[in-house]
Design a protein that fits this description.
heterodimer; A: mainly alpha; 2 domains; flat; B: MetI-like fold
């Protein structure tokens, strides 16, 4: 009697916990999807707005589906309307950004790889302090170097030029690239290098023949990180360049802020998407490496 | 000579990185520090002027508003990012279907620039055609949402957009942290009769102390530096109600041509960041030495 009572109440309990579990499961998915919609909402709004005409925008709401696939505002955002002065569009600035990103990513990655290699495989007295010395550069608020930098670029005669921005981004990328490569090479057994040294391999041979071939993942992480940072930069771009040498984020901001004519939200949104698409594509294709850069070198927003 | 070269090759290869950072980071910070002690206007002057710029700075209403905004923004930005990040990380950790897709969605804003984010949110939050109109068209006729153009509330629109951009990042940090905990610990606790809530609240979250610390440092550091988002969303307005230190610095230097004063504000930002970062770097280094 006692036993059966116990078992039945136990069954009830089990039944109850099963229902709570199902409920909890639904709750879980509900919350996750709710947040997913918060995150997806601006992207959705950007895309649909860019496909609408201004008439449609005024009549509908943010969420209204566009009447058709109308890429006119994309064409205007990219190539302008073709009326000379005052017609700002993104195409030339997009190329400025490419011309700035490619060399800056290359140089900063190369210098960082070399520094990381020395700091882990050719250790010298005080190398830890050298690393710390470089690492601090990841964190400094760039406002503290803007004024001297503006002056220096002026003296060098490369202010307001893509070359100037390449220099700036290369320099301030070095702390990050060094951090990435140093943390990667630290995990690679030094015996490998020692053995090669005994065999008579020199400094560069060891780097190019032994370390570089196994560095592919960290190169990908570093390149993606640097690409995203430099492409998305606004502070340096807006401070050290104006007019024709401006990178795309600066041009986007100028386009959106220009109050000369009636606000065209569809063109604004198309421009924003164009400025965001390269990094979004990289993120979608290589998200794994992107996240690794974010979390392992987790230092910058 | 050749022997010396060979022996010192690693140091020579290291030299460009150290030299560039030494000059462009440390040298420039000292240079800025020096300017902050001068009475520079449009162009830097080099006679020392004492701490006048700092006195002027802390007597300026605009700077005080900027600092005030920074404190409000940092507090809210931290709280929302961490709470949302932890909730998402814990929920995603429950063997969820389509976890990969959800993770991708939570994190994609990190790939966008603050200018793109700001442009999108500016459109969404604009009172005439944005969210307000959406609710009115849905039948809530008295619905108002004018934070973007409201002096008192505009700062919160920056929080909304900032959290949108960075919460996924905190999620990624915590998810990585949770996944690195041995399954055995959770299993043992469950055998001892602990329910899921207790497991997280009493065991796993306390184990995440370093992750909390990292998130804190990174988020505070992002918020002190926040500049682009404000430029794109409010440009410091309406009026000067959403000015923050980074914006104050560039405006003072490049629009108001008060180079000395702006250098002083830059040094205040530098010190704020250093106060957060140096203990962090110190503890990271100690942890690494302990390993």
């Amino acid at each position: 009697m006692q036993g059966s009572l116990q078992s039945s109440s136990y069954k009830q309990l089990e039944q109850k916990s099963k229902y709570t579990n199902i409920f909890l499961r639904w709750f879980l998915y509900f919350v996750l999807i709710l947040f997913a919609s918060y995150f997806i909402f601006p992207l959705y709004v950007m895309i649909v707005t860019s496909l609408k005409t201004m008439e449609e925008i005024r009549q509908g709401t943010l969420l209204t589906w566009p009447s058709g696939l109308n890429f006119d505002s994309w064409a205007v955002a990219w190539g302008g309307r073709g009326y000379g002065a005052g017609d700002t569009y993104l195409k030339p600035y997009f190329w400025n950004s490419i011309k700035m990103v490619v060399p800056a990513v290359f140089f900063s990655t190369f210098i960082g790889a070399m520094a990381g290699y020395v700091l882990t495989k050719w250790r010298f007295k005080g190398d830890k302090w050298v690393f710390l010395f470089l690492l601090f550069g990841c964190f400094i608020p760039y406002q503290a170097i803007l004024l001297p930098m503006a002056r220096t670029l002026g003296v060098l005669g490369i202010s307001n030029s893509v070359i100037g921005l390449v220099l700036v981004h290369t320099v301030y990328g070095i702390p990050f690239t060094t951090l990435f490569f140093r943390n990667f090479y630290v995990s690679i057994p030094s015996e490998l290098v020692k053995a090669a040294r005994i065999d008579g391999a020199g400094f560069f041979k060891i780097f190019f023949k032994i370390l570089l071939p196994i560095s592919k993942p960290i190169i990908v992480v570093t390149v993606i990180w640097q690409f995203t940072q430099i492409w998305n930069d606004f502070l340096f771009g807006s401070t050290f360049s104006f007019g024709e040498a401006a990178p795309i984020q600066v041009a986007l901001n100028n386009m959106v802020l220009s109050s000369t004519s009636v606000k065209e939200y569809n063109v604004d949104m198309a421009s924003a998407i164009i400025a965001g698409i390269p990094t979004l594509i990289v993120y979608v294709l290589a998200g794994k490496y992107f996240i690794r850069g974010l979390t392992s070198g987790a230092v910058k927003g | 000579m050749l022997k010396w070269l060979e022996k010192n090759l690693p140091k020579i290869v290291m030299a460009p990185a150290v030299g560039l950072i030494g000059w462009f980071v440390y040298g420039f910070v000292l240079w800025t520090l020096y300017i902050s002690f001068t009475n520079s206007k449009i162009l830097p002057k080099y006679e020392l002027w004492g701490v006048g710029q700092y006195i002027k700075l802390w007597g300026s209403r605009k700077w005080l508003i900027a600092v005030d905004n920074l404190l409000i923004f940092t507090a809210l930005f931290l709280i929302f990012c961490v709470v949302i990040g932890i909730i998402l990380a814990i929920f995603l950790d429950q063997k969820i279907r389509a976890e990969g897709v959800l993770r991708t969605i939570y994190l994609y804003p990190m790939a966008l620039s603050f200018i793109v984010t700001g442009t999108a949110w500016k459109w969404i939050l604009n009172p005439t055609l944005g969210i307000q109109k959406m609710f009115i068209d849905w039948g809530f006729e008295n619905f108002t949402f004018d934070w973007l153009v409201n002096r008192e509330m505009a700062i919160y629109t920056i929080v909304i957009a900032g959290v949108w951009q960075s919460a996924g990042f905190v999620m990624a940090l915590f998810l990585a942290g949770l996944r690195s905990v041995e399954d055995e610990i959770v299993k043992a606790a469950k055998i001892d009769g602990a329910n899921l809530f207790t497991v997280y609240w009493k065991i796993l979250l306390p184990m995440m102390r370093p992750v909390f610390f990292t998130s804190f440092v990174i988020l505070v550091h992002i918020s002190i530096k926040s500049y682009d988002l404000i430029v794109a969303l409010t440009q410091g307005g309406p009026g000067i109600s959403t000015t923050m230190p980074a914006l104050y610095m560039t405006q003072t230097a490049f629009h108001k041509s008060q180079v000395g004063l702006s250098a002083a504000s830059a040094m205040m930002m530098f010190m704020a960041v250093a106060a957060v970062i140096i203990p962090y770097l110190y503890s990271e280094l100690r942890r690494e030495n302990a390993r």
